[in-house]
Amino acid sequence: MMNIIFLGPPGAGKGTQSQIVSQRLSIPQISTGDMLRAAVSQKTPTGLKAKAYMDAGELVPDEIIIDLVRERVDEDDCRNGFILDGFPRTVAQARALGQLRPIHAVINLDVPDEVLVKRLSGRRVCPVCGAPYHVDRLKGATTCQVDGTPLVQRADDRAETVLSRLKVYHEKTAPLVAYYEEQGLLRSIGGGLSLEEISEEILKTLEAMA
């Protein structure tokens, strides 16, 4: 049994890597965003509380997010462990999580800010079919290879927005690195490797910690 947390700044590849590890270890990947949307659509009591805040344009309070996590990790598919992607975001959330379930490993994807800005600000997407692209591979092309639609840059991927998101991450979430490091649970993986190399490095690290 292994309960795992993935940490890392926006664009570090947490979602991709946690999905790969989830499949390899046969334990569920839990994204707080997906969990929140599911609870709202299923109209669970906690989901309805969260919806009231979301409809008002307010942040969902920690206690509601913690209740959602508690409900999710109590489900049968989490009996052999789980991977949390996007939670906890603060030390306060981490402390509350530790009272729900023991955490066995924390994987920190360590990618320099300048690499993330280049990676995220270079993303383009087709507004019609949603196909993703990156300027490094487009070789000057500006239209979708599927339907010829002009590609667009999402507002979240503009350089100034990326820098703002990274600033928030460093202020709010980066202290988690120190928190889990003190507990001896944190292992940092450099983000300069290929996707496959990072996956293998993560799996070797988890095997050593099991």
Number of strands: 7
How large is the count of helical segments? 10
Radius of gyration: 18 Å
Residue-averaged pLDDT = 92
Strand order of the largest sheet: 2-3-1-4-7
SS class: alpha/beta
Shape: globular
* Amount of beta strand: 5-15%
Model regions low in confidence, pLDDT < 50 over at least 5 residues? none
Give a quick account of the main beta sheet: strands, pairing sense, barrel closure: 5 strands, parallel
What is the N-to-C succession of helices and strands?
EHEHHHEHEHEEHHHEH
**Fraction of residues in H or I helices:** 40-55%
Termini distance? 8 Å
Description:
The protein has 210 residues and is α/β, with parallel strands linked by helices. The chain is built from ten helices and seven strands. The longest helix is centred in the C-terminal third of the chain and has 15 residues, at 159-173. The model has no long low-confidence stretch (mean pLDDT 92).
Secondary structure layout:
Layout: E1 2-7, H1 14-25, E2 29-31, H2 32-41, H3 45-55, H4 62-73, E3 81-85, H5 91-100, E4 105-110, H6 113-121, E5 123-125, E6 132-134, H7 135-138, H8 159-173, H9 175-182, E7 186-190, H10 195-209
Parallel strand pairs: 1-3, 1-4, 2-3, 4-7
Antiparallel strand pairs: 5-6
Helix pairs in contact: 2-3, 2-4, 3-4, 4-5, 6-8
